[in-house]
Inverse folding.
């Protein structure tokens, strides 16, 4: 009888570029996520005509909210929040935003939050997920920084106005939350593990079950959000080996 050897390979890296080995995956725990605590672009991708479910990214660091008992994104330090407010009631014209030496294309005086975010993300030093812009058309616009700027003390942008009408129209810029400060101690400021798989959920869902990885080997540079394993607070999960 001629017996030929048979081999197979299981690839775990699909959807998990941050996972370095199979070590620890058998210890995953099932937890419940508070979906309202996760941000579009930074944590999940929107549903589409052909894919009705939103999809959470694998590798998100998680903590447990001590009040609700639900798991949310790990949040040891505050994220920078800045507000841009148009004053003087202009009736026309444009403005630009400059951040870290780069300047956006001209934006209408009554630009929507989506238009402001698109203009910022078009800069080579701001990637999708680095900043989320909310607010009404014409402002005020609120810039919440995340992604590569997660937990950082982010420099305030500047603006250049070419407004018409109104009375001495201008844009004022205020830092409403300074980045890098200790976050609220509600449990999510303690790191407990990583979301092991991509998780799909419907837009109307508020909670869902998910696998929490509590032990393993991780490449922090490939996680979907910024994470510094050398800067986690006391009480955090230390059962991981990180690529350096």
């Amino acid at each position: 009888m001629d017996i030929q050897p048979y081999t197979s390979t299981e690839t775990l890296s699909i959807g998990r570029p941050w996972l370095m080995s199979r070590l620890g995956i058998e210890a995953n725990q099932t937890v419940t996520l508070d979906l309202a605590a996760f941000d579009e672009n930074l944590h999940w991708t929107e549903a589409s005509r052909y894919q009705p479910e939103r999809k959470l990214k694998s590798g998100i660091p998680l903590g447990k909210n001590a009040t609700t008992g639900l798991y949310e994104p790990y949040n040891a330090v505050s994220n920078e929040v800045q507000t841009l407010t148009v004053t003087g009631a202009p009736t026309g014209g444009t403005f630009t935003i400059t951040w870290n030496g780069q300047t956006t294309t001209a934006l209408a005086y009554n630009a929507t939050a989506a238009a402001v975010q698109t203009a910022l993300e078009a800069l080579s030093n701001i990637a999708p997920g680095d900043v989320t812009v909310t607010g009404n058309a014409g402002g005020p616009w609120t810039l919440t920084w995340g992604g590569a700027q997660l937990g950082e003390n982010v420099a305030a942008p500047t603006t250049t106005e070419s407004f018409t009408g109104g009375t001495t129209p201008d844009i004022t810029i205020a830092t409403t939350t300074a980045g890098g400060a200790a976050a609220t101690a509600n449990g999510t400021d303690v790191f407990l593990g990583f979301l092991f798989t991509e998780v799909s959920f419907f837009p109307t869902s508020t909670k869902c079950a998910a696998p929490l990885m509590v032990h393993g080997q991780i490449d922090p540079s490939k996680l979907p959000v910024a994470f510094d394993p050398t800067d986690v607070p006391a009480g955090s999960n230390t059962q991981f080996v990180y690529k350096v």
